[in-house]
């Protein structure tokens, strides 16, 4: 059964990104449809798959990480507006029977992602 998961790692502190709000959207023909919102737990992960089974379809998706709120809570003093605040990650699902793990590695001045397992 296919599923979508994520987690957040704070690369500056070497810690899980706890309490980060993540919005999930499906992108279809120029339309952006909100699917759900999740919050990362103490391990920087969600308590379960974000989407799974019939909820995960072939197509394009967007995860929107509200990292600025997390960075503020960490006491990061890089001024306002933040260099990084809301981070959108767009990606495609070509085979909805597979596991798509889309993590966010974040610091106050950079971020990256990859398709994990």
Automatic annotation (TrEMBL):
UniProt cross-references to PROSITE patterns, sorted A to Z: TRANSTHYRETIN_1, TRANSTHYRETIN_2
The keyword Flavoprotein is assigned to this record: no
Catalysed reactions listed for this entry: 5-hydroxyisourate + H2O = 5-hydroxy-2-oxo-4-ureido-2,5-dihydro-1H-imidazole-5-carboxylate + H(+)
Keywords, ordered alphabetically: Hydrolase, Purine metabolism
Pfam family, any one: Transthyretin
Molecular function terms, GO-annotated: hydroxyisourate hydrolase activity
SUPFAM superfamilies listed in its UniProt record: Transthyretin (synonym: prealbumin)
CDD domains, per database record: TLP_HIUase (cd05822)
Protein origin, superkingdom: Bacteria
EC code: 3.5.2.17
Family that this chain belongs to: Belongs to the transthyretin family. 5-hydroxyisourate hydrolase subfamily.
Subunit composition and interactions: Homotetramer.
Stated name of the protein: 5-hydroxyisourate hydrolase
């Amino acid at each position: 059964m296919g599923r979508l998961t994520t987690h957040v790692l704070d690369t500056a502190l070497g810690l899980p990104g706890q309490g980060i709000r993540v919005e999930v959207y499906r992108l279809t023909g120029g339309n952006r449809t909100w699917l759900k919102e999740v919050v990362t737990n103490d391990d920087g992960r969600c308590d379960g798959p974000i989407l799974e089974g019939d909820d995960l379809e072939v197509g394009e998706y967007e995860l929107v990480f509200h990292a600025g709120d997390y960075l503020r809570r960490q006491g990061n003093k890089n001024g306002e507006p933040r260099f990084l605040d809301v981070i959108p990650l767009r990606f495609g699902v070509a085979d909805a029977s597979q596991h798509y793990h889309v993590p966010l590695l974040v610091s106050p001045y950079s971020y990256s992602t990859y398709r994990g397992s």
